[in-house]
């Protein structure tokens, strides 16, 4: 017959079991959050291809049918939402401050929530996969919620874009 463990060893065993459960729950939460983020933004690493004298980036829609992608503004990571209804690239004010974007002339902008003030700025570089745009007109919009940058027509007009089989193809000619 085996002798029962002393109380100090039982406490250690119980503590180790609790620690293992907590670690397992944290790992599961991390895994589920990354799955959720991939569903929200299926283009975290947009697929790029070279087609003769053009670079093409293929974007998949998320579950809501929106085209989100991870990109860069002035070599800093951002999340972009393709918005063909936006006249320019619109950057939320808090994100613009993080990116160090200068505020230029003030102007009024019409948004889904009404009229708001904005500030003109220019993006030295805007990267979408292997597509690199230079000196892009943009606006800093203080009333804009969230951290997603609206990828508007000031950038999109420099590209050919079309829908194919549900995906959005962006093409830049060199």
From TrEMBL:
Signal peptide interval: none
Entry-linked PROSITE patterns: ASP_PROTEASE
Lineage: Bacteria, Pseudomonadati, Pseudomonadota, Gammaproteobacteria, Pseudomonadales
One Pfam match: gag-asp_proteas
Organism: Halopseudomonas aestusnigri
UniProt cross-references to InterPro entries, sorted A to Z: Aspartic_peptidase_AS (IPR001969), Clan_AA_Asp_peptidase_C (IPR011969), Peptidase_aspartic_dom_sf (IPR021109), Retropepsin-like_bacterial (IPR034122)
Keyword Repressor: no
Coiled coil regions in record: none
SUPFAM superfamilies in the record: Acid proteases
Protein name: Aspartyl protease family protein
Top-level taxon of the source organism: Bacteria
GO molecular function, one term: aspartic-type endopeptidase activity
GO terms of biological process kind: proteolysis
